Amino acid sequence: MTAFLASVSSVDEARVVADIADVVDLKNPEAGALGALASDRVQEIVRWSAGRYVLSAALGDLPMRPHLIADACEAMAASGVDFVKIGLFADIACRSCIQAAAARTLEAALVGVLFADQAPDLTLLDDMASACFASRQLGEDRMSLSSRATNSRARCADMPRENSGCRSSHRTSSGLLLTTA
């Protein structure tokens, strides 16, 4: 399955792309590769969407501290988005962060993003699958993702990989996140 993901940082931007994007991705590219929007901005877009569109939201470039990641996942999931994107940066604590995030009962599905420029441990993809992450993605690099304009677009090629042991109703997949200028 190939889906079109459009990153936005306001309701005005969401209105422009909502009817053509498969996923409306809420993030602040000025705050990093997976820069988080302020919670009031996320809430504003969720209210505007009113469940009509699939929404994902980035947590921000957080340090790899399991409790911090889990708390941020829980807070973002409570906002009403469908998917919470977690940047998993090169750090020995990545596995613990994956487990901590997955241990919480969340209303949103989890998406883990590794970055190619950090020579990621690709066995983390299997850890995310075992933890029932809805999607596991390998981004080209942190710099190119964070340097995109506010209305950046990305195409995500997903290869289905079901995990029947997951408690979530979201289909699981793995993929390569490709960004375009």
Textual characterization of the structure:
- This protein is α/β, with parallel strands linked by helices and 181 residues long.
- It has a single domain, classed as Phosphoenolpyruvate-binding domains (TIM Barrel, Alpha-Beta Barrel).
- 30% of the residues lie in helices and 27% in strands.
- The chain contains six helices and eight strands.
- It has helices at residues 11-17, 39-49, 66-78, 94-103, 123-130, 142-146; strands at 2-8, 23-26, 55-58, 83-87, 109-115, 135-139, 153-160, 173-180.
- Strands 1-2-3-4-5-6-8-7 form an eight-stranded mixed beta barrel, surrounded by five helices.
- Helix 5 links the parallel strand 5 (109-115) and strand 6 (135-139).
- The longest helix has 13 residues, at 66-78.
- The two termini are 22 Å apart.
The radius of gyration is: 15 Å
H/E order of the elements? EHEHEHEHEHEHEE
Tally of contiguous helical segments: 6
What's the β-strand tally? 8
Using the alpha-carbon principal axes, give the shape.
Answer: globular
Strand content: 25-35%
Largest sheet: 8 strands, mixed, barrel
Distance between the termini: 22 Å
Uncertain spans = 143-164, 167-181
Q: Provide the CATH architecture.
A: Alpha-Beta Barrel
What is the third-level CATH name, the topology? TIM Barrel
Could you say which structural class the secondary elements and strand pairing correspond to?
alpha/beta
Helix content: 25-40%
Q: What CATH first level would be assigned?
A: Alpha Beta
Strand order of the largest sheet: 1-2-3-4-5-6-8-7
How many domain units?
Answer: 1
- Tell me, rounded to a whole number, the average pLDDT: 80
- The CATH superfamily is Phosphoenolpyruvate-binding domains
